[in-house]
Design goal:
This protein has 432 residues and is an alpha/beta fold. It is built from 15 helices and 24 strands. The chain has a 4-stranded mixed β-sheet, sandwiched between helices. It has a 4-stranded mixed β-sheet with strand order 2-15-17-16, with helices on one face. Strands 4-5-3-14 form a 4-stranded mixed β-sheet, covered by helices on one side. Bound molecules: ligand EPZ. The site of ligand EPZ has 23 residues, from helix 1, helix 5, helix 6 and helix 12.
């Protein structure tokens, strides 16, 4: 198992380039197998979740050609199975997008029921509701979701809550259904729009993605396409918060500033400076930042995937902040780790009361999940002394070359095996 070792106290300065959005790419990789022609995807993030998804689609017979780290060609004409092995669902929940894709294309699919995960129970009842309303028989037996349909027929589907996964999964199945489907109360995240734009580039007929009503007119088949994945708004937001928390000055390139507005607004509110350019933002901060209140909401509200990062910044700010997590029921597990570094945060139900402190002290801590892990790295960058963060495989699920990008911004951070006492000693000697 590997860990990050960080010597804190240096402001991040310089430039960083953001990669493609993991949460758009996962839906797009599933959609890519719906054509019987070659699809070329560019700006694909080279992260663990994407590599697992590529293995899953190769396993069912799709042809996958990795042109380079960020470009892949996929051809779904030779798919031989519509059943996704449990091991893929165990590794990444987004394997369930293949349910919508294969049900749409072959009118049949089996995928293991995703378990809960580190941040909540995460049921998929809305996905199943949508498939049934399109005419599929969906049975859940012994942990496997089995979906079949003689044919899929467009339907008027009203989601009980705003859900990214169900919006994408239903969109996948509906684009090859007969007739018109309307998805009400749809999620509006930029990655929903990216999946819809990709499907339309393959010949689908989807309108309204990015609003809460998506209208889909089913087509006979989908064709090949060349597509570039949208920049990752959460990777960008993570670096924005890291720049502000370390009182640095960072130009974050290859972003869509509009997608970052909720984070920009909150960083500005607490006293950081954010300058927006066409495809970049510059974040800098000098003195101690102030407090604010956060409530995570579906897009365009403050993203739940940015909650651990902004809470870490607020834990170092002047005054008391309240952070309310309205999307997932267990997304404050990292608070105990921050408390070991000196943070004073009290979690009451789905809210955290954050009393800002002057600074953190380095400690040995564990990443409980992907975004919390990134938040703990930010804490280590600010802390006095050395911080060791283990379970970093969580972080590598969604951040490409994370420690290299941070090191290139002036930080002292190394990745090493947790058992490698020699490297740790060498690191400590080097940093003094
Ligand atoms: C996606 O998860 C993202 N994952 C998550 O990012 C992100 O936090 C989440 O959307 C919210 O933006 C991917 O895109 C791969 P939801 P998803 O369906 O689709 C409940 C990361 O860090 N719900 O929008 O699973 C659910 O329990 C990850 O990159 C139901 O009750 O999220 C949750 O409380 C973490 N029934 C809420 O809705 C359903 O059928 C939102 O879930 C579906 C969801």
């Amino acid at each position: 198992m590997e860990q990050y070792v960080i010597k804190g106290g240096k402001p991040l300065t310089g430039e960083v380039t953001i990669g493609g959005a993991k949460n758009a790419a996962l839906g797009i990789l599933a959609a890519a197998v719906m054509a019987d022609e070659t699809v070329t995807l560019d700006n694909l993030p080279d992260v663990r979740d994407i590599n697992v998804m590529l293995q899953a689609i190769e396993e069912i017979g799709a042809k996958v050609e990795r042109v380079d780290k960020h470009v892949v060609k996929i051809n779904g004409s030779n798919i031989t199975s519509v059943s996704i092995e449990y091991e893929y669902m165990r590794k990444i929940r987004a394997s369930y997008y293949l349910l919508g894709a294969l049900l749409g294309k072959y009118k049949a699919a089996q995928v293991s029921l995703p378990g809960g995960c580190d941040i909540g129970s995460r049921p998929i009842d809305q996905h199943i509701k949508g498939f049934r309303m399109l005419g599929a028989n969906v049975n859940v037996d012994q942990g496997v979701i089995d979906a079949k349909a003689d044919k899929l027929t467009g339907s008027h589907i009203y989601l009980d809550m705003v859900t990214v996964g169900a919006t994408i999964n239903i969109m996948l199945a509906a684009c090859l259904a007969e007739g018109k489907t309307i998805i009400e109360n749809a999620a509006k995240e930029p990655h929903i729009v990216d999946v819809a734009n990709f499907l339309n580039s393959m010949g689908a007929n989807i309108k309204g993605a990015g609003t809460d009503v998506i209208r889909i007119r089913g087509v006979e088949r989908l064709h090949g396409s060349e597509y570039s994945i949208v920049p990752d708004m959460i990777e960008a937001g993570t670096f924005m918060v890291a720049a502000a928390a370390t009182k640095g000055d960072v130009l974050i390139k290859n972003v869509i500033p509009k997608h970052l507005e909720a984070t920009t607004a909150k960083l500005t509110e607490v006293g950081a400076k954010v300058e927006e350019y066409d495809d970049a933002v510059r974040v800098c901060a000098t003195g101690r930042l102030g407090n604010t209140h956060i409530k995570t909401l579906p897009y365009p509200g403050f993203p739940t995937d940015m909650q651990p990062q902004i809470t870490t910044l607020l834990a170092l700010s002047e005054g008391t902040s309240i952070v309310t997590e309205s999307i997932f029921e267990n997304r404050f597990r990292y608070v105990d780790e921050l408390s070991r570094m000196g943070a004073t945060i009290t979690v009451e139900g789905n809210s955290a009361i954050v009393n800002g402190v002057q600074g953190f002290k380095g400690a040995a801590i564990s990443a409980p999940d992907l975004r919390a892990g990134a938040a703990l790295v930010i804490a280590g960058l600010v802390a006095e002394g050395i911080t060791q963060i283990d379970q970093i495989e969580y972080i590598q699920r969604g951040y490409e070359d994370f420690e290299e990008k941070i090191r290139n911004l002036g930080a002292t951070i190394e990745r090493m095996d947790v058992e490698d006492e020699k490297s740790l000693k060498k690191f400590k000697l080097k940093v003094g």
